[in-house]
Amino acid sequence: MSTWSPALEIYDDTLSPQRFNGALREGNAYRGPPSQDIDDAWDKILYHGGALVRISRAQLLKINASEYAAEYTQEMGGGYIAGIEVFHQLHCVNMLRKATYMDYYLPRMDEWKDQQTLRYHLDHCLDMLRQKLMCDPDLGMVTYVWAKGWKQPFPDFSTMHKCRDYTKVLEWARENYVHGINVADIERAPGALERDTRP
């Protein structure tokens, strides 16, 4: 689970029952062969590729962030640059999805031209997702079912879960989004600390 976050204000203890779609051979809005519809569906849940938000010094200290946390200049409104972890995690799932259709996405994605950087990015994503799953393990049970014409039983991954309302995350990101600022356009605040290497 999350450590403290300013976005936690959006949730109380209400969880909604939801049955996951775990069918092996059935598609949905987020999976299947590459298409504009699938890419658009992923774009909607990623909210502007990650939605940079502004947090205060007090909030920064509460989340136990690095001393090197980057600040916005006062001309840009001050505060610290942050992103919501779930958007990075979903970015990683989407990146891995696209990598399974490399022949389709490679010619369409300039940032994939450098194969070594792409490999670093994919390995980073795999390991971030591994850490998340090991930090917050799902202890739900996957039962097995019999199917006509088959000798062995099959796992039924369409299991029940108790879920937070993801639309609230999108709403919070929209309300706290730093509009019109691309990370490449952010100016360094005077006196900003610098690490010796990038993370």
TrEMBL record:
Classify the source by domain of life. Answer: Eukaryota
One GO term of the biological process aspect: mycotoxin biosynthetic process
Q: In which pathway does it act?
A: Mycotoxin biosynthesis
Its family remark reads: Belongs to the ustYa family.
Tell me the protein's name. Tat pathway signal sequence
Q: Which source organism does the UniProt entry give?
A: Aspergillus tanneri
